[in-house]
Amino acid sequence: MKYERxxxxxxxxxxxxxxxxxxxxxxxxxxxxxxxxxxxxTLLTKLQTVKGWVFVLLTSGLLYGLxxxxxxxxxxxxxxxxxxxxxxxDAIFVKDCxxxxxxxxxxxxxxxDKLRSQILGRDDTAxxxxxxxxxxxxxxxxxxxxxxxxxxxxxxxxxxxxxxxxSTKGVYRDSKHNVIGLIGIARDITERKLLLEELKRDKExxxxxxxxxxxxxxxxxxxxxxxxxxxxxxxxxxxxxxTIRLKKDDSLQICASIGIxxxxxxxxxxxxxxxxxxxxxxxxxxxxxxxxxxxxxxxNPFIKQSKIRTMxxxxxxxxxxxxxxxxxxxxxxxxxxxxKLHLLEIxxxxxxxxILNAQLYEHALQLQERLQLQIDHMPLACIVNNQELQLTxxxxxxxxxxxxxxxxxxxANPCDLITPPTVRSxxxxxxxxxxxxxxxxxxxxENLTKDGRTIICEWYSTPLKAADGTVVGMLSxxxxxxxxxxxxxxxxxxxxxxxxxxxxxxxxxxxYDTDTLAFLxxxxxxxxxxxxxxxxxxxMTIRDIRPPEDIPALLKHLTQISHxxxxxxxxxxxxxxGTIIDVEITSHPLVFSGxxxxxxxxxxxxxxxxxxxxxxxxxxxxxxxxxxxxxxxxERLEQQLEQARCGKAGLFAVLFLELERFELVKYSVGHxxxxxxxxxTAQRLEKCIKPTxxxxxxxxxxFAILLTxxxxxxxxxxxxxxxxxxxxxxxxxxxxEIFSTTSIGIAFCxxxxxxxxxxxxxKELSNRSLAAxxxxxxxxxxxxxxxxxxxxxxxxxxxxxxxxxxxPAMHEQAVARFQLETxxxxxxxxxxxxxxxxxxxxxxxxxxxxxxALVRWTHPTRGIVSPVEFIPLAEETGLIGLIDWxxxxxxxxxxxxxxxxxxxIKPLTMSVNxxxxxxxxxxxxxxxxxxxxxxxxxxxxxxLEITESSLLKNASSGTAMLEHLKALGIQLSIDDFxxxxxxxxxxHQLPIDTLKIDRSFVSRMGIxxxxxxxxxxxxxxxxxxxxxxxxxxxxxxxxxxxLRSLGCEYGQGYFFSKPVEQxxxxxxxxxxxxx
Length: 1075
Description:
Blueprint: H1 8-37, H2 41-86, E1 91-96, E2 101-104, H3 106-112, H4 116-119, H5 130-146, E3 150-158, E4 161-173, E5 179-188, H6 190-218, H7 222-237, E6 241-248, E7 251-258, H8 263-267, E8 270-271, H9 275-283, E9 287-289, H10 301-305, E10 310-318, E11 321-330, H11 338-377, E12 381-386, E13 391-394, H12 396-402, H13 406-409, H14 414-417, H15 421-435, E14 441-448, E15 454-465, E16 471-480, H16 482-504, E17 509-513, E18 519-522, H17 524-530, H18 534-538, H19 551-562, E19 569-574, E20 580-592, E21 595-604, H20 606-620, H21 630-645, E22 652-659, H22 662-668, H23 671-688, E23 694-697, E24 702-707, H24 713-727, E25 731-733, E26 736-738, E27 742-749, E28 757-759, H25 762-766, E29 770-774, H26 781-797, E30 803-805, H27 808-830, E31 833-842, E32 848-859, E33 863-865, H28 867-877, H29 880-901, E34 909-913, H30 916-919, H31 924-935, E35 942-947, H32 948-953, H33 955-967, E36 971-977, E37 994-997, H34 999-1003, H35 1009-1024, E38 1028-1032, H36 1037-1045, E39 1050-1052, H37 1062-1071
Parallel strand pairs: 27-30, 32-34, 34-35, 35-36, 36-37, 37-38, 38-39
Antiparallel strand pairs: 1-2, 1-5, 3-4, 4-5, 6-7, 6-11, 7-8, 9-10, 10-11, 12-13, 12-16, 14-15, 15-16, 17-18, 17-21, 19-20, 20-21, 22-24, 22-27, 23-24, 25-26, 28-29, 31-32, 31-39, 32-33
Helix pairs in contact: 1-2, 6-11, 7-11, 22-23, 23-24, 27-28, 29-31
C-alpha cells in the first residue's frame, strides 16, 4: 500500500485561507450591520467589543476543528505505516547523516539484542564491535555521499555471534530534496548461508567420491593389488597368513592367499553359513576365533592340518551386497585389539573397491566394442581430444550437428573449427580443470557449423586417464539445443508476459489452491470489481464468493477438476456488497508456490445476459402490450399441433381479431391514445382466456387467440361472442369515451377430423394461398392463422356478423378475389378495358343529347367481366382511380371526334363517373384541365357524375372541390340519387346541375305507386333547385310516357339503346335516331 507523507504546507495554507476568508467576511459584514443599526457611539463600542470576542471564539473553534480533523488523518496514516513497519521480521531503521539511529522497528531491536531506548540516538560504534561498526559506517558514508540505493550482504558480529544479513540502504531526503539521513532494511540470511555452505561441502564430498571412483576404475591389475594388500595386512597385523574368499553362487572360493601353500586348501570351497568364513558371510559381521584347533565351528580340515590357532575375519560388502570374506590367521594364539579390527575393516573396504573395479574393468573390456558401436549411433555428438586438444575421435552425430566429416577434423583443434573466438578460452579452461582433477565439466556454448551457422550446444566433458591416473585427453558429448534454448527464452518471456497479463488484465483474475480452495493471488481488477481488499481476498476461499444455493454445483465442479476435467462456463458470484453477478469463467491448472492450483479469468457478463434476455423477450413478445408476438404464437400453435399428432391434445381453435376504427382513433385522438387503446384491448383479452390459452398481438390492430382443450366448436364461438361483448364496451382515453368493435375469424382442428381448410402444397403453398382441402393436425401453424384471418375478413365484409367460422367456400372466394385483383392490375397495365357509350336522350325532342361513358373489361380467358364484379374490388383496392382516369381520357377524346364530325348537331355532352378516390386526390383540377386542353373539349360539354357516398366521405373538402370544377365550366351530376342517406339536407348547398334518378325507382313506377311518387318528388325537388333530371333504366314506352308527363328532361336506358362501343354509337349519331 502506498504511503503518502502529510503535506504540512498545504495544511497551513488551507487554515490561513479559511481564517482569512472567515475573518474578512465577519469584519466587513458585522461592521456595516452595526453601523446601520446602532447610532450611539458608546453602545457601538461595547457591541464591537462583544463582536470581537465572538469572532475570537468562533475562529478558535473553527481552527480547533480543522487541526483536530487533520491530526486524526495524520494519526490514521501513521497507524497504517506503523502496522506495516512493525509487522515484518526484517530490520527497518532510519539514521541521520551522523549515523545515529532516529527510528527503528521492533525487529531491529531484536536483531541487535538491545532495547529500543538503548539504540535510539546512538551510532554503530556503541552497538557493535569496532571492526563491524567501522565496516557498517564506511558503507553508510558511501551511500550518503553518492545518494544511490545499494543492496549487498554483510556480516555483523553481535555478542560474539556473527550473523549474515542481506541489506538494502538508500538516502532519505527532506521536502527540498536535501539528504537528511539513511533508510535501511536488513534481512537475516544466516541460516540460508549455512545451508548453502553445507550444500557446498556436500558437493565437494561428492566430487572427492567421484575422484576416488575414477582412480578405482583406472586400477586394472586386481591380483597384483590384492597380493600387495595381503602382504601389507600380514605385515601390519603381524599375522602368519591372510586369505580373500569371493562369493560364487552359494559358496566362498579363495581369490588370493598368502602364507598358505596348500593347493587343496586354496581350491576348497566353503558353503555360506558353514565354518568360519561361511559364518562371516552369513552374519555380515566380523568373527574372531581364538583357537581354531579346538573350535567346532571350524570345518575346513586343512586348518587343523596347518596348525592354525587364531583367526579373525571381516565381510567384504558394498551397498549391502556380499562380495566375499577377508580373514587373517596366526599359528599361535593371538589376541586382537579394536584398532587391528578397525584396520582390517578399512582394508576390507579397499579390497572391496579394488575387486569391484577389476570386475567393472573386465566388464568394460567386454563392452568396449559395443560401447563404441553405441557411440557411433547415439544422437549426441561424441568428441575425443588428446592433451594438445587435437581431435582423435568424431562420431556420426558430430558430423550431423557440425557438418564436418571425421576425416576433415581428425588432428585438428576444435577451437579452430567449431568454437567462436569468444568461447575458445572457456574450452581451454575446461580442459585445465579436468586435468587438475575435476571429474566432469558442464557448459552451454555457442558453436559454429561448417556452413557458417551459429548454434547453441550443451556440453558434458570428462577426463580420459591413463592407468597411472594421468589425464591423457578429454571426452566431450554435445547436444544441439538451439530450439530448446529458444523455447526456454520464449518461455521466460512468456512467463514475464503472463505476470504482466495477470496484473494488468482488465478482467478479474485469481489463483486458488485446488485442495483448500483458498485464494493465493488476485489482481487489481478482481479487487476493484468484487469490492474486497487484497487482504480480504487472501483470507477467503472460493466458497465465499459463491451464493449458498450454488455450493452443491461448486463441489461437483471441483470434483471434476480433481479428476482432470476442467469445466469452464458461467457461474454466479457474490460481490462484497451482496450483489449477485453472472461470470464467465476460464481456468487453467498450474503449480503455484509448490501447490496444485488453478488460475482463473472471470468475465462479468451480467449486463450481456440481461441484454440477451431482453432480446429474447423482444424476439417473442410485443413490447407495447407485453403479449406474445406472431413468432411465439406460431411456436405455441406448433406445440399444440405436435401434441395433437401424438394424441395428447383434443380440439383447439384459433381466433383472429381485428380492432375496428383503430386508424380513426389514432389520427383523431392521437397516437398515444391509440397505444392506450391497444393496451386496454390486450388486458381485456387476457381476462377472457384460460391460463393455458394464448393471446398474441400480430399487428397494429390485429390479435390472435389460441384456445386449447375445448369441448366442441360451440365453446370457441361462445368465446368469440364473449370477446366481442368485452370489446364493444367503451374505452376511456384521455378523458374521452371511445367505442370500438371487432370482427373475429375462427379456425378449428380436432386431431385428424376434417374441420376446415388448409394451404395447398407445392406452388400454392409457396404463395401462402389456401386450398380447398380440410385442416388437420398435419398442417402448418401458418395454415390455421391464415384460415382464421380469412374467416375474419368474411365476417368484416358481412357487417351483420360478429364472427365467422372458416369453411372451404370462404377460401374459394378469397382465391377468386385474389386472382381477380391480380388480373385487374394486369388489365390496367395491358389496357384490356374498353369504353362503351350509352345514349342520353332528350325527352322533349327524342334526339340523342349526349352519352354516358361506361367501362367494360374483356378478360383474355374469361371473356366479358361484369362491372358489378370488378368495380367494387377496384374501389376497395384503390385501383378505381387509375381506371376512372383512363375512361375520362378515352371519353373526352371520343367526344372531341364526334363534335368535329357532327358539328351541325346540337353540341353533345359526355357523362363520366368521378370516384371518391379522384375527388379527394391532389392535382385533380390540373389533370382535368390538361385532359380538356389535350382533347379540345370544352368543360361545358363534360358532365362528371358523383355518387352520394362520395359526397359523404368528402363532406368538407368535397364542396370546395365542386366549386372549383364549376369554375372550369364542367357540369356536375349526382348519380343514383335517392339511394343515399344524408345528402338531401345539403343538396341546396352543392353546385349541382343534374340529378340522376336511380334505376330502382324507375323500374317500379308501373308496379308500385310509392315509386312513382318518389320519382315525382325527386323531379319536383330538382326543378325547385334549378336542376335538370336524368332518369336511368328506362326500358318500356309506359315508363317513357310517365317520365315525360312528370317533366323529366332526359332519359337513359335499354329502351333507347344498351351501352355500345364507339362504332355503334357513331352509327346511332349518323342515323339521327329519334324516339
